[in-house]
Amino acid sequence: MRRFEGGGDFAPLRPREYDVLFTLSLAVAHSLRLRDLNEQVFMSQPSLSRMVERLEVRGLVSRAPAPDDARGLVVTLTTEGLALQRRVGRQHVRSIARYVGGALDEEELRTLAELTRKLRTYQP
């Protein structure tokens, strides 16, 4: 991970900001309730709330009251946020290929991708 951070893969985002945008990019309508987003990223709820506020100021996400619960909050990836997530994601994929690609053959890369997907979507 340090190689990716040091190489500027996530610029102009921090890695955790990218994780939030990436998680939202996979969600239906690019939206999640804040509590559901919190379950999928490795951050405390207060830290995530502050980050979402900063991302909203930058125009990368929007926040709105949950339609079924006024106390809840829905976070949605904006068009600008999705474009940035995709741009940063492409750079990150190129770096992964550079750092990992030579060490693994095609079958191993497919296995790694499948295992990573399983870990990312696992819900105990």
Per-chain topology:
Layout: H1 2-6, H2 15-26, E1 31-33, H3 34-40, H4 45-57, E2 61-66, E3 69-77, H5 79-100, H6 106-121
Antiparallel strand pairs: 1-3, 2-3
Rounded to the nearest angstrom, the radius of gyration is 16 Å
Strand residue percentage? 5-15%
CATH superfamily: Winged helix-like DNA-binding domain superfamily/Winged helix DNA-binding domain
Q: H/E order of the elements?
A: HHEHHEEHH
For the biggest β-sheet, the strand order reads 1-3-2
Which class in CATH terms? Mainly Alpha
Average of pLDDT = 87
Number of domains: 1
Sketch the major β-sheet.
3 strands, antiparallel
Question: Which class do the helix and strand fractions yield?
Answer: alpha+beta
Under the CATH scheme, the architecture is: Orthogonal Bundle
Distance between the termini: 25 Å
Helix % is 55-70%
User: Quick one: overall form?
Assistant: globular
Low confidence ranges:
none
Report on this structure.
GO terms for molecular function: DNA-binding transcription factor activity. This is Winged helix-turn-helix transcriptional regulator. InterPro entries: HTH_MarR-typ, MarR/SlyA-like, WH-like_DNA-bd_sf, WH_DNA-bd_sf. With 124 residues, this protein is α+β, with helices and mostly antiparallel strands. It has one domain: Arc Repressor Mutant, subunit A (Orthogonal Bundle). The chain contains six helices and three strands. The chain has a three-stranded antiparallel beta sheet. α2 packs across α5. The radius of gyration is 16 Å and the shape is globular. The protein starts with a helix and ends with a helix. The mean pLDDT is 87.
